[in-house]
Specification:
The chain is α/β, with parallel strands linked by helices. 55% of the residues lie in helices and 11% in strands. It contains seven helices and five strands; from the N terminus they run βααβααβααβαβ. The radius of gyration is 15 Å and the shape is globular.
C-alpha cells in the first residue's frame, strides 16, 4: 500500500510526467487520506472542475483515521502547532501514516517534520 499526500496527487492530476511514471511503476494499492480528497475538492474553482476531479479520484481507495488515530493527532497537534506551525489537516494525515505503518509520499517535509515517528518519502524527482 502507498499513502499519498495532496501535493503528489496534484502532480498526478496535472499529469506531471515524473509523477505519472512513478505511479505507473507501482504494483500496490494507492490510498488517499480523506482529508487529501477534501483538500483537492477545496481547490476546485467550479462544479465542472469538481465533477472532473471526483471522476479522476474514483479509482483510488479513500481511507479515514479511526477515532483513536484522531485522538493521537489532537495530542500531536496540541504539542506542535505553536512551535512548528503544524497544520490542522497535516496532523491527522501524519497520524494516519504512522498508524498504518506506511511512509507518507510527499514533498512537504516541512509541514510534517514535527510529527514524531512519521516516515516521509519523496516519490520521484520534480525536476
Amino acid at each position: 500500500m502507498v499513502l499519498l499526500d495532496t501535493d503528489v496527487m496534484v502532480d498526478l492530476l496535472r499529469e506531471h510526467v515524473p509523477a505519472v511514471r512513478w505511479l505507473d511503476s507501482l504494483d500496490e494499492e494507492i490510498l488517499l487520506p480523506g482529508f487529501v480528497v477534501m483538500e483537492l475538492i477545496q481547490g476546485c474553482a467550479s462544479r465542472a472542475e469538481q465533477r472532473r476531479l471526483q471522476k479522476a479520484l474514483a479509482g483510488y481507495r479513500v481511507i479515514w483515521p479511526s477515532p483513536e488515530m484522531c485522538d493521537e493527532a489532537i495530542s500531536v497537534f496540541a504539542q506542535h502547532h505553536l512551535s512548528h506551525s503544524l497544520g490542522i489537516i497535516d496532523a491527522p494525515i501524519g497520524q494516519l501514516a504512522i498508524s498504518l505503518e506506511l511512509p507518507l509520499q510527499t514533498f512537504n517535509h516541512k509541514h510534517y517534520s514535527a510529527i514524531p515517528n512519521l516516515r516521509l518519502e519523496q516519490p520521484y524527482s520534480r525536476s
